[in-house]
Amino acid sequence: MGRLTTRLRRVAIAAALCAPLASPLAASAQQLQQCGTSGAGFDAWLAQFKSYAVSQGVSPRAAAAALDGVRYDPNIVALDRRQGVFAQSFFQFSDRMVANYRIQKGRQLINGDQSLFNRIEQQFGVPGAVLVSFWGLETDFGANMGDKPTIRSVATLAWDCRRAEMFRTQLLAAMKIIDRGDLTPQSMRGPWAGELGSFQFLPDHYLNYGVDFDGDGRVDLLRSHPDALASAANYIRALGWKRGQPWLEEVRVPKNLPWDQADLSIKLPRSQWARMGVVRAGGGQLPADQLTASLLLPMGRSGPAFLAYPNFDVFTEWNNSLVYATSAAYLATRVAGAGPFDRGAGKAIPVMSMSQVRQLQTLLNQRGHHVGGVDGILGSATRQAVKVEQMRLGMPADSYPTPELLAALQAGR
Question: What angle do CA 207, 212, 216 make, to 5 degrees?
């Protein structure tokens, strides 16, 4: 699943490679800023990038090993343009991805090497259930890590104009991984966007968060489970994970709840949610404490309801698709022992098609909202704009788009 689930992952983009370069490479700065929509000019640009990488500390030997003979691959660009898995609803995505075999496999992996997971949690504070959740969704526990040459993929995308700056960061990081001795260009293989290993780390994450946890002197996220798991935990900790705190909890909500409060940007103490009538899924009372949480309704007010705690933010940082983040967090709760969520109205909940969502996004943009690209994917910006329009129209403001809302906007209301 790594080929599909990491397209929208947030990455920390390093300093722009397009900045003017110090002598003697200053003359090549303009060429480094160039990009293309075909292979024309790629070879000359790659030669300049090779020199640039050496100026950034990559050894000439490693630079030659990484880039000599690399060719532009138009198939990679075609794959980059062909994305859409996150247009699925939470039901559609989670039903497929939070499969029973992943729940059982995750538990078996933890139980089979409890000492390893205990050591990782002790050092990084991240529980095993969270780690195996990402492991299962990203690569099916290492079964589907991809087989495309990473350097060719990343170099192609670093030349392509759509996300050139981001992938130039990744290309330089990949070369530094080779220079450090962790991987060879030949062993560096993965899906089309250049991710690596069991957790589908982009090269800069590999370089900056990789951990040699098995003590063999190399960070090997392709073949070493201890290295891969500890590196994932190290990255999750860096994203802000709070040791010992929950991440997602299913709850029941009253029918008269002020639905505009169901928003990830609204964080209230559990005591306040309890006063509003929110109870645990089994009917028990929420603790009357000050731990903050947001109310998450991935399918709107008629579907399942969750309290998303501060640690849930880590899931959205790992991948900013809400359906992915919610599914990953939910899978982690299942591995940790929670039962399946209540589907609420289930099949009666309307699910808009990708085409309908595009129409909605176009109308929202025309009304002055800023939902980003018209891509048919329900991201946080689209849901926030939906909430504003629902409030304006007097509809229950649960941030979940419906054909009813689309029809109202099409009618000019």
Answer: 125
Q: Look up residue 36 and give its DSSP letter.
A: B
Instruction: Give the number of other CB atoms < 10 A from CB of residue 112.
Output: 9
Residue partners of 329: CB distance under 8 A and separation at least 6: 133, 247, 248, 308, 312, 315
d(CA 401, CA 231): 37
Show pLDDT as tens, one digit a residue, over the chain (413 residues): 443 334 334 443 333 333 333 333 433 556 677 999 999 999 999 999 999 999 999 999 999 999 999 999 999 999 988 766 667 899 999 999 999 999 999 999 999 999 999 999 999 999 999 999 999 999 999 999 999 999 999 999 999 999 999 999 999 999 999 999 999 999 999 999 999 999 999 999 999 999 999 999 999 999 999 999 999 999 999 999 999 999 999 999 999 999 999 999 999 999 999 999 999 999 899 999 999 999 999 999 999 999 999 999 999 999 988 999 999 999 999 999 999 999 999 999 999 999 999 999 999 999 999 998 888 888 889 999 999 999 999 999 999 999 999 999 999 99
